[in-house]
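Work Package 3 (structural annotation) set out to generate three-dimensional models for the target panel prioritized at the project kickoff. During this period the team completed the workflow that converts sequence records into discrete structure tokens, so that structures can be stored uniformly alongside our sequence database. As a representative example, we reproduce one entry of 468 residues exactly as it appears in the project archive.
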Amino acid sequence: MELSKFLATIHHDTDIKCHASLLGNWFDPNRCESIFNDKYFNIDEFIDTAGNLSDIKMDDVYFSLNSFRKRHRTESDVWHLNAFAIDYDFYKLKEYKNLSPDEMYIKHIQSSLKYEPTFVIDSGRGLYVIYVFKHCSRVRKKLYKEIYKRLIKSQEQFGADQKATLVTQVIRLPGTINSRNMKLVEIIESNETNYDILDFTGILPFSISEVNKYKAEEKTKRAEGKRDIPKEKHNKESQKECTYFDDVYQDLKKLVKIRNEKNEVEGYREYMLFLVQYMGRYYKKSPAEALSYASKLNGMLKRPMTDKEVQTQCKPSKICRGVMSIKTIIRKLEITTEEQKHLDTLVTDEMKYELQKQKKVARRRKIKYLNRTEKEYQVFLRRDMVIKLKRKGWMNSKIAAELKTSKQLVACDLKYIKDNAYEFIKKIEDIMKELYAFINIDNFTRYVTQEFNKVLTKWLEISEERLE
């Protein structure tokens, strides 16, 4: 299929005044070097320029699925929504890594798709499945993002990239080269489709009628004054002064160390370094300071990126509109529950609850044969000393001085001993005898085992000598 027809199909309703983005290494004559960044074109220039880049088979060129009203690839500037693209990194999964993109699509992905794709593209290593739909206004961005997430989630078992769900999403341009393995990006299937964005709402958990009904009910509640007291306005300035950035940065350093050991950092490097710069800029750090933090983190990676790549490929837009939530960071970095056990901030609420529960269990863990925690056992030993010293006729003040505690605590201990006299006369005494017996038996067993191992080793040595 011709590239021009392919791009015209995706951007079919795009206004000539709108801009589409081409992301690649463009030569800058002022610097006499290539710089990896976006260039923006109206639809006609966009198709012509993309055709030229495809003819010379340029490395690593990406194009935007949606179009923009200004020369900025930001979500606030999106004007026309055109398509969804599911990015499959199936080669990261053991069971599929030896399959070619064609084989992976035919054997596994094709039968699992709920909707027939408009295009299927071999990205050089993975696959893109693209759904083109009729012109959709930017007003439906929330609906677009929710459908996009659900489409990705439905293909998660085949390595669908969870991070590739942006309204500003870019994908590789067919006819160009994937520099990771020097393979050509090709269109392997195209179908005549006529989708509307509402055709994909079947993948959502609620129907449009249910959503409209819910909105109407909420509107009625507000009108009748039955809604809860509204939340306090978000104080952005006070949030910027918090230590959230430092906490996240420390967790990212721990995460890098963990993944360095597993050799699993590649694939997350770009987002980690982008996140550090984005959050640094949001929390009033200068671009140079934010870049410095990112460079330090990059230096910890087992396979770091170059300084130029950190500055160009991982830089945030000039407008940092909001702080990333913990839930979003965990999802995009795919932080596992096992990794969260070693982190402090990047932990889900469910995992926090589980860790607190484990700590409580550990604190309440009983000493075997005594059925007491360590703290309870220490208290018992102190009370045992108090009663022994009291039987000798010592005054409370002298006992307190001897045990380095207060007279009030000694008085409380004596009251407890009086109320629970049986515990100090018989029960613990019997348990301690059993415990000492167990310890002696255990030591005896260990001694016999060691002696047996010595004899066995000696016998094996003699046997080997005889065989020789």
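The chain has a mean pLDDT of 81.
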